[in-house]
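Budget justification note: compute hours in this period were largely spent on complex prediction jobs such as the one shown. Inputs:
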Amino acid sequence: MKKISRRTALKAIGSTVAVVGTGVVRAGRGLAAPAINKGTVLTVSTWGGEVEDGIKKHLEPEFTRLSGATLAYDIGGMGARYSKILAQRASPQTDVFFCTDEAVVSGVKAGVLAPAARKNLSNLSDVADWAFTLKSQAGDDTLMAMPYCLIAYGIVYNPELVKEVPTTWSDLWRPEYAGQFSFAAPVHSMMPGMVITVAEMAGGSEKDVEPGFKKLAELRPAKLTVAPTDWGPLMKSGDIRLASEFDSYFASLKAQGYPVAYAFPKEKALGTIDVVTIVKGTRSQELSELFLDLVASKPVQTGFAGDTYIGPINSKVELSAEIKAKCNCGAHVDQVRLFDPVMAASVRPMWTERLNTEVVPKWGAR
Amino acid sequence: MKRIVAGAGWAYLGAIYVFIVGPLLFVCAASVNGAAAFPAAFEGLSFRWYRAILNHPEFIAATWTSAMIAAVSSAIATAAAFLAGYAMLRGRKKEDPVLSTILASPILVPQIVLSLAILQFAALFGMGTGLLGLLAVHTVHGLPFALRLVMTGLARFNFSLEDASLSLGAGQLTTWRQVTLPLLRPSLIAGFTFCFILSFVNLPISLFLTDAQTTTLPVVMFAYIESRIDPMLAAVATIVVVAAAAATLTLERYLKIRLVE
Amino acid sequence: MIDATVADRPLVPPLPRRHGGLRAALRWRTGGLNGLLLLPSLLLVFLFLGLPLVVVVISSFQPNVLLSFEAPGFDNYKYLLTRAYYFDVLIRTIRLALLGTIVTLPLGYAAAMLLLRLSGRLANLAMMGLTFPILAGPLVVIMGWMALLPARGPIFGPLVALGLISPPRILGSETGVLISLVQFMLPFAILTLYTSLKQIPRELYEAADSLGAGPVQSFLDITLPLSLPGVLSSAIIVFSLGASSYISPHYLGGAADLTLTTLIAQFILATYNSQLAATAAVLLLIIMVLCMAGLVALVGRFIRP
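Corresponding output:
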């Protein structure tokens, strides 16, 4: 069944343009010339909502100005987008992929991601050191993924219904909150970190997580969530009083008028470095690297922090006091705990299964 | 007494309608609410959420993709259905139960399983997701529905008209073009329209098959809901409902074709 | 809509007891033109349904991230069927679809009988109203339910505030899923039953009336038996809608109330285990076919030829 689909045709055109473009770049000033890339479309796989809007507002104009190419978006949850990249292995449709650092580990293992050349990433030196959680994946001259932001998974609560500000993850186990909070579903990206944190609270450790599973089974969440929209309406109606959630989502819900406040647990919030990485078989390595570089640039990072309240990873970014207050982790890096993405990727399949079969049945959550 | 029974009956029917249409009306009403969130108390009439769609070209692009996929798949499904229905009913009183069970089988397969099956099947040929897979799954999903609607027309069609045409020297194709197809036009259009709508609003059959270039409206909405629920989705939904209702009304009014009998 | 036609010709025609099977059917049909005309649709079903399903079945016998065994093996099936968690998913899928069917059919039957009394414009409008939720697509309707169903939302909120009821747990429970399923199924059921009821000749009622039969008796003797084929069709449609529904359990059921469809999506979209997804898909398919066969056998027995 050999048919020339629109895809293959597009790809062929795309790579031709890219090859021509590369030649010009080498000869020119290091940036792809606008006229050459005109008509090229780089496909960005990313989260919808704030992140997508942020890219459109702060990154796309500069990207197009510098390269002449435009951006297309594949929007969705990370799982859905990653499974597409796996499915499209033979004929990739995506150029750059926004994901968690952990997904990069899986992606490298699956052979669907391509490294970027450090020499083409001029903003790399401005990126804060703590943001490089993927050290083992990097080479001397290459980088597997460009850090994009720090987000922190902590406790969101309704200040009208919760008088005592939560201070610890243990608060979720308090009897008065039983059935009145939402909690991460087993497939949530932060679950490995959560299991470890809870294990340590219960006297275990990263190596000994049994106490963690045991303690998690005693939890009584009202609803399991993967996205803020799973619990938003319930918080608004007063059905739940607390929720575990990322600070950036908290901020966008607050901006929409939801009755919410955010608290850092004393065990630290669970941090994750979201990154952007290049998909193997990209239409243009050059343009993808330009995209990665722009993501880390000071103006883009400043704009993102201001609009989407994510923690900037560019150490040169200066934020106003007002934005700092909203943008939790940017100003509170020390209150966030980062986990080794290689570890998280290796334990995830087994732990998800254990959470599903051993823990969730005890929850009776809805 | 009789009056009370009748009154209770109409009250029951009313309640059923509120139940069926209520959530939809609620969403449509929210689309013209100026508030920033969904749901929210009414803050005055506003079309800001309709304007907001313009900032989301992916919604507009996906609408065209959905329409294109729906049109092509429905056309293929309706044409195939016509041929099959014709073959089964020409010269017979009853269709063959085994054949029609086979042709109806896509309806017995859960939609999400259809999507998964095409995904894994396409992967065998090194094909990823995208247009071809979407067209395949939408066509096969629409086939049973098209077949049913076309068969209703065929069952009422007087095949002796064809014999008359043939005996007057017209060829088979001419007969089809001049006799059969014009007479079957209502059920063909009904079949096409129904397939089109089913395809246009369907999420599960496309769920695993879209990519950045080719994504359908329900999948875009699904992805959007994951990050936020705002009245913009309500606005998109309202447009879809109004367009679909307008299409059915037009069919009824000007082509005298009833989807609902 | 579909159901208008489904009533007089069931979407899935019940197989007669004695039939030569597929080979006889094809032998009977494949003479000349007819065979050729059937080719496109048979090819569509074969290429885009038959073969892909074979691929799914094959993949369900393969090892994966979670289970290593020598392929082909039944280990995936054993795994899903012996774990309480997954077995619950299976039972929940059947329970929701069955409950939905059982609730929807009588509600829809009564509504269809009442709708028969409407005429002209009003009847047209009423029929169109039923199609709106279908036209809009379930995704939009679910948004409405997500806003309406919280315990302190617009429906239950006032009652809770007045102290008339304690806050119900509906959103994120099986009840919530069931409510939205019934709402989703009802238009399909009503449309099917309406057409079926409408085809009962009026003269029969007049005859019954002149013989002195009361409304109850004429319902039992005429309406019910003659509408049974329609009941069967709508039961089949409603059940299959219920068992294969994805959006309702995904949004209203919460992660602890997985059904086979949401489980399949989770295997594909979250844990990247296409083999277990395939296994769950095959199980769902088997359940659907078994339950439909059961339905046809059960109701079919009462249908007079």
